[in-house]
Amino acid sequence: MIIAPSILAGDFSKFASELKRVEKTGSEWVHLDVMDGHFVPNLTFGPQVLANARPHSSLFFDTHLMCSKPGILLEPFAKAGADLITVHVELEDRVSSLLWGIRSLEKQVGLAINPPTSIEEVKPFLDKVDLLLVMTVNPGFGGQSFIEECVPKIQQVYEWRKEMGLNFRIEVDGGVNLTTAAECARVGADTFVAGSALFGERSLTRAVKKMHKVVSRVNSGFNK
Ligand code: DX5
Ligand code: ZN
Fold first, then answer.
1. Which ligand 1 atom lies nearest to the CA of residue 143?
2. What's the domain count of the chain?
């Protein structure tokens, strides 16, 4: 079980030290939200910020591209030090070549799906990904409420993964707190992005450890 604190909830004026703070929690991943002001109504940062941060961190850079034209960003983000790059299934006929593009840059391949999109859309790509990200809010902003209707999608992906004998990670992102993380773990999620629920606590380390404990407990019952 992996907890990926989302830097979106951190302080962007001290990006590198926020990464250090995440690293000190014992978490191996950090979730990096890249927004282009077009695919989503918000803007964050580009590859230069990641490249500057890279020497300060040995965290696994879980890079979530919420961008209309991610094709032009794959190589810059790969060079900047992303470890995994996720693009959205809503990009339709471009998805195949984007996934191939990420793979050819020798990065792990992620595919994300927004709440209104049918889960059937990701099925043809499951054998090509290392991670499937089920969005549990409409992307763009931190601090939104978890959309319960997304839970069956996690379960469906979990079933397909079993049926197909695949082993990609199942990640959830948006409104993830102790309660909703447990709910997602119960139906098969193994990777949990959380922003405000973690950074909003006095001790980030304690918050991460607590979430890890909660989802691991669910998981150990789940696999019996
Ligand atoms: C939402 C982003 C998330 C965001 C989650 O558009 O993709 O990664 O940081 O934030 P919380 O956990 O606050 O919902
Ligand atoms: Zn995200």
1. 13
2. 1
| Shortest-distance Cα residue to atom 1 of ligand 1 | 139
Domain span at residue 67 reads 2-222
Q: Mean per-residue pLDDT for 86-110?
A: 98
Ligand 1 atom at minimum distance from 6 CA: 9
Residue of the CA atom closest to atom 7 of ligand 1 = 139
Residues with CB under 6 A from ligand 1: 6, 8-9, 31, 33, 64, 137, 139-144, 173-176, 193-197
66 forms beta bridges with: 35
* Per-residue pLDDT tens over the stretch 112-161: 999 999 999 999 999 999 999 999 999 999 999 999 999 999 999 999 99
Ligand 1 atom having least distance to the Cα of 198: 12
> Residue 114 is part of a domain; what is its CATH number?
3.20.20.70
Let me know if 211 is exposed, middle or buried by CB neighbors in 10 A (0-12, 13-18, 19+): buried
Closest CA relative to residue 40, chosen from 115, 96, 145, 148 = 115
Looking at residue 222, what is its pLDDT?
72
Between the alpha carbon of residue 130 and those of residues 107, 139, 167, 213, the distances in Å are 10, 21, 8, 24
Structure confidence at residue 221 (pLDDT): 77
Q: For the whole prediction, is pTM greater than 0.90? A: yes
How much of the chain exceeds pLDDT 90, in percent?
A: 97
Site to substitute for ligand 1 among 30, 196, 198, 201, most atoms within 8 A of C-beta: 196
Q: Tens digit of pLDDT for each residue in 149-180?
A: 999 999 999 999 999 999 999 999 999 999 99
